[in-house]
Amino acid sequence: MSTNTLIQKYNVPGPRYTSYPTVPFWDKEGISSNNWIKTVQHSFYESNTTKGISIYIHLPFCESLCTFCACHKRITKRHELEDPYIKTLLKEWQLYLDLFSEKPVLRELHLGGGTPTYFSPENLSRLMNSILNAVDLHQEYEFSFEGHPNNTTKEHLQTLYDLGFKRVSYGVQDYAEKVQIAINRVQPFENVQHVTEWAREIGYTSISHDLIFGLPFQTKNDIIDSIKKTVDLKPERIAFYSYAHVPWIKGVGQRGFDEKDLPKDNTKRELYETGKQMLIDFGYVETGMDHFSLPTDSLYKAFENSILHRNFMGYTTNDTQLMIGLGMSSISDSWYGFAQNEKSLKDYQKRVDNNELPFFKGHLLTTEDLIIRRHILNLMCHFKTSWADEELKFKELPQTLERLKELENDGLVFITDTEMNVPKEARAFVRNICMAFDIRLVEKKPDTQLFSMTI
């Protein structure tokens, strides 16, 4: 079957699997505060001294709205909001610290948004010093942040580097002016060049650029130009994402252009195949879904050594068991449960002011959830999984293998009695493959579209 035919067949709505179960299929009953605290403490004492913990901090403010963005954000130019938000973050952090009788060992920390560099270097320093004063650092700790090329200053980079940050990710998306105007993200190549070169001069060891294919008005020539400009700067990592058009979730923000302006189906797939081949030709290696890295980067090494991990921060080289999410809309992961914070700034701050952990929904994983989660993680991170170990077998395994038969017949998976592998040429279909394992999706197939298209 031709690639185009396979794309037409398998290009359906599907999760990106930053978690299992995915958020729409968390139990409606959720998780009580007491149960959430128990799973956090269980995971902490089980893994703190060996693996350490991860912290994700959501800094939601942006000065303008990018119309491609599906993140939870607050659009404002009022920088006086920085101080009260930091105070709330630190109070929430203290609520978690109060759960533990020993110092957390911090292995991984990521500042996401929103726009983390909306905050002044002084405020970021105050936030980070308060976090770090309460922890011991893991010997292999890694700190990273998302920088906006238009407002990341050399002072931002130096301040965070001095605090231990060695990784930075810049959202580039596309360099074509017509595309940038459509998505309200106008940033010249020179801006990206400056912040990339500053980071390298200061000493950052891993710089990442995010590119998106499938944006409005985007053409094959735009992809070629954007890839060429990107590799000229030689970032260690490149994320090459499919644009997730989900206006039914994000409302007006993703309706800043007409649907007919979006490249679709085979046209969109050509954008990806063109970009992917260029990245490979320039020496980048595919390391997980949508991600490419140079062989010298830690992400590639983690992939090669089969220790790559995936959570709500995306792909990571650290397989920490407990990830604490701080800030409005952040999702925490105790491995045994998930909890998402209030999505509105007002509700988030009110809950923390009342000395409450500010999550509004969550999920307590069942024994079967934990097994399925392991299989999906294996597929997303290593493009293979096995059920040779009795502990990785589950009741629905025969039905899952039956659902995989059509994918196997189409050459997208290779299956033996005890394991399965995804060949290189089929990695673009990994979300579809994971969907065969997704028992909750199979049992409760949604009546309306919840997810972006898989391809």
Description:
The chain has helices spanning 3-10, 33-47, 82-97, 121-132, 154-162, 177-182, 189-202, 220-233, 247-250, 265-281, 298-304, 345-353, 367-382, 397-409, 430-437, 439-443; strands at residues 53-59, 61-62, 74-75, 105-113, 136-147, 165-173, 206-213, 237-242, 285-286, 291-293, 309-311, 314-316, 322-326, 331-333, 337-341, 359-364, 384-386, 414-415, 419-421. It is of the alpha/beta class and 455 residues long. It has two domains: 1-21 and 366-446, Arc Repressor Mutant, subunit A, CATH 1.10.10.920; 26-325, tm_1862 like domain (pyruvate-formate lyase- activating enzyme, Alpha-Beta Horseshoe). It contains 16 helices and 19 strands. 38% of the residues lie in helices and 20% in strands. Strands 9-10-8-7-6-5-4-1-13 form a nine-stranded mixed beta sheet, with helices on both faces. The protein has a three-stranded antiparallel beta sheet with strand order 14-15-16, with helices on one face.
Protein topology:
Elements: H1 3-10, H2 33-47, E1 53-59, E2 61-62, E3 74-75, H3 82-97, E4 105-113, H4 121-132, E5 136-147, H5 154-162, E6 165-173, H6 177-182, H7 189-202, E7 206-213, H8 220-233, E8 237-242, H9 247-250, H10 265-281, E9 285-286, E10 291-293, H11 298-304, E11 309-311, E12 314-316, E13 322-326, E14 331-333, E15 337-341, H12 345-353, E16 359-364, H13 367-382, E17 384-386, H14 397-409, E18 414-415, E19 419-421, H15 430-437, H16 439-443
Parallel strand pairs: 1-4, 1-13, 2-3, 4-5, 5-6, 6-7, 7-8
Antiparallel strand pairs: 8-10, 9-10, 11-12, 14-15, 15-16, 17-19, 18-19
Helix pairs in contact: 3-4, 4-5, 5-7, 8-10, 13-15
